[in-house]
Design brief:
18 strands, 9-stranded mixed beta sheet, 7-stranded mixed beta sheet, about 35% helix, Rossmann fold, alpha/beta, 2 domains, 19 helices
Length: about 675
């Protein structure tokens, strides 16, 4: 087998588009010419192309909706899909609402309230109540991503202006913000400073149990509506919702799912996913619904799903949520509303300024709510922000110690995910007989989308150059697989007198991460083995920017997630293709392949080995997680985001795969 990979070094050197350097060596493999007309070879760009194709198909379906019956059927199917992707909602428990403080103001009062979202999982809120007898319309205000949440000045302005115009306004803290931090220090202070970060962290475990950060946030909004309905001073038939940024997201979701919201005004969020993908890309965890792009759930659908209920899109000219997409959203929505004879019930306000509710936006939202909920169609004057009576954060606290997690027996979202993970573990035992690997692997394929090994296209390769080192050389190549794959750049570390067996080496940092002289790969080469290291999709030369140090390549992960795919599934097929190439290149009989994986890549390597155990002689996993069940209920394990599969714990866990390959695991 000394002819293994012979001749790879004879190829002409390519013009290199990426500069991957190790100690002055150029280890890049992709050439500029392969880009065609400026086309990117990153996995992220590949996913974007798939997304745009799906969105084009979705738009054609929407344009074909002509009758009220067709629109109703479209709404029903998409709403059911949306609910399913969120994993459903828990049963309602008693609210057990309490008023913990009252502040008198001119023309209204503020009540600090606390009530149950789920048992031992509380919502803190400020209730702005107009003077008078009522009953009043009620509006819930969903906070954007601010640490102080309900007490942030822009949220207080929402509450005040609505109360000034005859409406109850309930502004509540989302999970991870205000008094609802989901992780605390020993001193009882928020452990995580960034609100978006905590939403990402919650997302990791939620994905594994088939939920989403949005599941908890939408349910909180629905419970806030429940609370308004429980108040005698509120007219339960006249409920509305508004919120900015992340609050605009939750307004959009809740107004699409809960028919109690008669009037809605999401602010600084609604655009189109076509424009979002081409500008800032996927946002935080709750803004990405599993498979929504593949199914055809676009942002205009959040409005269309509630047609013909009154809806105002509030936007700003210089928002990072593209204003052109906002107007396209209105166009699509208004066409549906017009076909239902209600074109006046959907509109858009665009104010000057950047992301956030500007004075003109706030006045327009108040006027919209007043028009449809109070029944008074009169302009609301634009007020200078300085004229609002903003209270201090301390005045508006609902708990004595400032955090719900300090209440006796309080459960965090991590606790709730952990409980569900344990329930799913018990269900798996009852559904599948012990040792039934056939059913297990079928479940794995269903969850990950990984195709059977015998149906995968056979890989081919191109040569890309050669690097000489003392006692061995490195051949550069690109492995190609037909179908939904990006090229896989690879390095072959080739000793002078190689063994018949070879190693496939994987690392989160890509093919060159452990390839320096004196590094882990060189030690294997010195033992006489060929080592092939590969950039899996989204790694190394196929990465789109630099991955986040704590969460990995979360943007590519969420682009795949939106398409109903997973990084684990994509990498599993990459590994199987690379292993097939290693086993069969220039060999009449497949050679032995030893697999080594490091970090997050261990999860995909474990899947590949379990799904095709005959391909690998030994498997070594450096730094693999203990289980997904452990990850689901732990904030400390949230960094495994890109190693998750949506709803996987409904059918299997990582130890199940470990059992399949137990005899091959190397220490």
């Amino acid at each position: 087998m000394r002819a293994f990979f012979i001749g790879l070094g004879l190829a002409a050197l390519w013009t290199l588009s990426v500069h991957e350097m190790v100690c002055g060596e150029d280890l890049t493999c992709l050439k500029t010419e392969e880009n065609g007309a400026g086309q990117s070879l990153s996995w992220y760009s590949h996913l974007k192309q798939q997304a745009h194709t799906s969105l084009g198909e979705r738009l054609r379906k929407v344009e074909a909706l002509k009758s009220a019956e067709q629109i109703s059927e479209y709404q029903k199917g998409l709403r059911e899909f949306f609910m399913e992707q969120l994993g459903g909602f828990p049963e309602r428990c008693p609210l057990d609402g309490q008023v913990t403080g009252t502040i008198k103001a001119t023309g209204y009062r503020i009540e600090n309230v606390i009530f149950n979202s789920q048992p031992q999982h509380h919502i803190t809120a400020n209730l702005y109540i107009p003077d008078g007898a009522g009953p009043f319309p009620g509006v819930i205000v969903s906070s954007g991503h601010s640490r102080t949440a309900k007490t942030a000045d822009y949220n207080q302005r929402f509450g005040i202006i609505l109360a000034q115009h005859g409406m109850f306004a309930l502004c509540y803290d989302p999970i991870g913000q205000g008094e609802r931090s989901q992780t605390l220090t020993a001193e009882g202070q928020p452990l995580v400073s960034g609100t978006v970060t905590e939403h990402f962290m919650v997302g990791t475990g939620s994905i594994l149990v088939g939920r989403n950060t949005a599941t908890y946030r939408v349910w909180d909004a629905m419970r806030a509506l429940d609370y308004l309905e429980s108040r005698a001073e509120v007219d339960a038939k006249r409920l509305g919702m508004t919120g900015c940024s992340g609050g605009g997201t939750l307004t959009s979701y809740t107004m699409a799912l809960d028919p109690r919201i008669k009037c809605a005004a999401p602010a600084c969020y609604l655009t189109t996913l076509d424009r979002l993908i081409d500008t800032s890309g996927p946002q935080d965890a709750e803004q990405n619904i599993f498979g929504q792009l593949a199914r055809g759930l676009d942002q205009p659908d959040y409005v269309i799903l509630r047609a013909p209920q009154p809806t105002l899109i509030s936007s700003t000219t210089n928002d990072f949520f593209d204003i052109g997409g906002s107007w396209e959203n209105l166009r699509q929505s208004k066409r549906i509303y017009a076909r239902l004879g209600a074109s006046e019930r959907v509109d858009l306000v665009e104010a000057d300024g950047a992301h956030g509710v500007q004075p003109a936006n706030l006045a327009a939202i108040a006027q919209w709510m007043q028009r449809w909920l109070v029944g008074k169609d009169a302009p609301v004057p634009v007020q200078e922000f300085a004229k609002f009576d903003i209270k201090s954060e301390k005045e508006l606290l609902c708990t004595q110690r400032g955090q719900v997690l300090l209440l006796p027996g309080e459960k965090s979202v991590y606790d709730l995910n952990a409980e569900l993970a344990q329930q799913l573990a018990a269900q798996r035992v009852s559904k599948r007989a012990a040792g039934d690997s056939t059913k297990l692997l079928a479940d794995v394929r269903a969850a990950t989308g990984v195709r059977a090994a015998d149906t995968l296209p056979k890989p081919t390769s191109n040569r890309a150059g050669k690097v000489e080192r003392k006692d061995y050389h490195i051949d550069k190549l690109v492995i190609h697989v037909d179908g939904p794959h990006v090229p896989l750049p690879a390095l072959t570390f080739h000793p002078k007198d190689p063994s018949e067996a070879a190693y496939l080496y994987l690392h989160d940092g890509g093919k060159a991460a452990d390839g320096a002289e004196g590094g882990p790969i060189e030690k294997i080469v010195q033992d006489g083995y060929v080592v092939v290291s590969v950039d899996l999709s989204g790694q190394g030369e196929t990465a789109d920017g630099k991955p986040d140090a704590s969460l990995g390549d979360w943007k590519s992960f969420y682009m795949a997630y939106l398409m109903g795919q997973s990084t684990v599934g994509r990498h599993t097929e990459d590994i199987l293709a690379a292993a097939d190439w290693v086993a069969n290149y220039q060999s009449k009989q497949p050679r032995e392949v030893h697999l080594i994986a490091n970090g997050r890549t261990c999860v995909a390597a474990l899947h590949a080995a379990a799904l095709n155990p005959t391909r690998f002689t030994t498997v070594k996993l450096n730094g693999a997680p203990e289980s997904w069940t452990t990850i689901a209920g732990s904030a400390k394990e949230a960094h495994w985001l890109t190693a998750t599969v949506h709803g996987a714990l409904r059918s299997y866990d990582l130890p199940d795969l470990m059992q399949v390959i137990a005899g091959k695991l190397a220490k």
